[in-house]
Amino acid sequence: MISEDIILRIKEENDIVDVISDDVKLQRGGTNYKGLCPFHGEKTPSFTVSREKQIYKCFGCGEAGNVITYIMKTKNRSFPEACNYLADRVGIEIKEFRKDKDVNYEKKKRLYKLNTEAARLFYYNLRKNTNAQKYFINRGINEKTLKKFGLGFSNDSWNNLLNAMKGKGFSELDLLEAGLISKSEKGTYYDKFRNRIIFPVFDVKGNVIGFGGRVLDDSLPKYLNSPETLLFKKGTNLYGLNFAIKGKAIRERKIVIVEGYMDFLSIQQSGITNVAASLGTAFTTEQAKLLKRYVDVVILCFDSDEAGKKAAARSIEILKEIGFEIKILRIPDGKDPDEFLIKHSTEEFQLLLDNAWSLIEYRIIMEGDKYNLKTQDGKLKFLKATAKILSKASPIEQEIYVKKISHKTGISEQRFYDEINNVLRFENKNKNIRNENGKNSQNLYLEPAYLKAEKSLINLMLKKEFYYEIMEKINKEEFNVDIHISLIELLDELHENNIENKVEYIEGKTENVDVISELIRINEIDIEMVDDERKVFIENCIKEIKQHNFIERKNKLIEELKESEKNGDIDKCIKIAMEIRGIDELI
Hints:
Layout: H1 4-13, H2 16-21, E1 27-29, E2 32-35, E3 47-50, E4 55-58, E5 64-65, H3 67-74, H4 79-89, H5 95-100, H6 105-128, H7 130-138, H8 143-148, E6 152-154, H9 160-166, H10 172-177, E7 181-183, E8 189-191, E9 196-202, E10 208-215, E11 223-225, H11 241-244, H12 248-252, E12 254-258, H13 261-270, E13 275-277, H14 285-292, E14 297-301, H15 306-322, E15 325-328, H16 337-343, H17 346-354, E16 357-358, H18 359-370, H19 376-390, H20 395-409, H21 413-436, H22 449-461, H23 464-471, H24 482-496, H25 502-509, H26 513-523, H27 531-567, H28 570-586
Parallel strand pairs: 12-13, 12-14, 14-15
Antiparallel strand pairs: 1-2, 2-3, 3-4, 4-5, 6-9, 7-8, 9-10, 10-11, 15-16
Helix pairs in contact: 1-25, 3-4, 13-16, 18-19, 19-21, 22-23, 22-24, 22-27, 24-25, 24-26, 27-28
C-alpha cells in the first residue's frame, strides 16, 4: 500500500491546472479555470478546475476528482501507475513506492519472463520449419520483419512448449496463468498453441503480454489468441503500438489503425511505422483512451466488406467520444493493405493515406451506397440524408462537399443549401422548445433525492462523531450505490484507526478510481448546521433513503404479483398483497 505521506507529496508537487492543461485548453474565469470536458463530448465548456482546491468537476456529466484520478481516467492507468506517472513528472524518486506499486509485482515479473522465453522458443521453431517460413515468404514478409517483431511458430506437438519451459524452471501453474497451456478433463496439461504461426503481442513498454496464433491451412479456428491473464486483457491493448510510438506516430500525433496482424506487418515493412492493429476485437473505449496518450488523429483502415463497415461505424463513435480527429481509408477494389502493398509501392499507399476521407466525406459516401442515384426517389432520399450530415459542417466544408455532390448527382447546389437550411430551422425550433421548457442545450448532471441523501450522510460520516451516530440508525446495506457501501466500509476502518488524512488514506486503500472520484465529490458538499438542525437533516436523509427502498421493493412486488396472477398462484398472490399493504403503511 502506498503511504498517505507519499500520496500527499505527489499531489502537492503536481499542480492540477498544469497537469490538465497538457490535454485541455483551460481559460481562467474568476478563481477557477474552465474548458471542454475530456470525459464527454460538449461544445459549451462545463468542465471546471480549481487551483485552490486542487480538484476538477464537470457540471455536464458529473465527473469529478483530483490530479491522480484525472491521470487514472484520461490515461487509463491504475492507481499505482498514475502515482508513478506523476512522481516521474516532477522528479520524485521513491523506492518504497516503486517496490509496492503493484501487489502482483513479483508474479507479473515472472510471467513477463515466461512469455519472453516462450517467444524465443517460437522464434527458434520458425527457423526449423520450412512450411512456416514459406507462409511468410508467400505473404511477402522478409527476414528483417520476422526478426523485428519476433514472429514464430508453435510446433505440431502437445508438449513442446510445456517441456521446454519446465526445463527452464517454470511450473505448470506458471504456464496456466500465462495462458500458454490448457488442462484436459483427465487432468493432463497440453500446449495451447499447436502448429500455428505465432505473433507475440507486446504492451507499450515492449513486454510480451500474450500471443496470437494462425493456422497454416484452412482448419478452424483460423486465429487463436491468448486468454485473459494477469498481463493480457482483451480490448485494452493494440498490436504493434509499442513500435508505432517510437517515431512518426508521436511526432505527427497521427496513427493508422488496421484490423489484422498481416496488414500491420505489411505496412510496417513498407516503411510506414505509425500503424497499429486492433487485435481482431471490436474497437473499445479502453483502446481509444490508450491511443489518446500518443495521438490526436486516427486513420481507420478496415476491410470493405459489411463486417468491416460495421467495425468502422462502431469505432468512429468511440473515437468521437474520446475527441479524436477521424479519417477513413478505403483501399480501391475492396483490397486490404496487405494485398495492396504486394502489388503497389509505399509511395502509392502513402498517397492513399494522404487522401483518406474526412468523417463527413465518409458518411456522405456511405449514404450514397445506400440509394440508387439514377432514380428520383433515390436522389431525394440521398439529398435529405446528406443535408443532415452537412448541417453539422462548417460553411467551407459545406461549399466543398455541395459542389462535389451536385456534380456527381445532378442535383443543383441550391437544392442542397435549401435542404440544409430546412434541417437547421427544424433543429433551432426544437432547441427553442426545449429552452422554453427549462431544458437548455447544455444538459446538467442531475440526481434523485435518495442519491443526494446518501451523499450527504457520507459527507457527515467523514467526521468520526457523526459516523457512529448515523450508523446506529441505518445499515450500510440500505444504501443503494455500491460505491457508497465501499466508502462506508473504508470509513469504518479509517475511524477505527483514527486516520487524519482521510482522502489520502482511502486513495491508498483502493485502486477503484470511481470510489476515489465519488469521495472527492462528496467531500465538496457544504453542510454547515447547528446540532438541532443537523439531527433533523440526518433523520430526513435516512427517511428519504428508506422511502426510496420501500418504493423500489413495492414496484418489484407488483411485478411479482402480476406474474403470480398470470400463473394462477392464489396463495402467493395473497402473500405478496399482504407485503405490499405493509409497505404502504410504512411509506
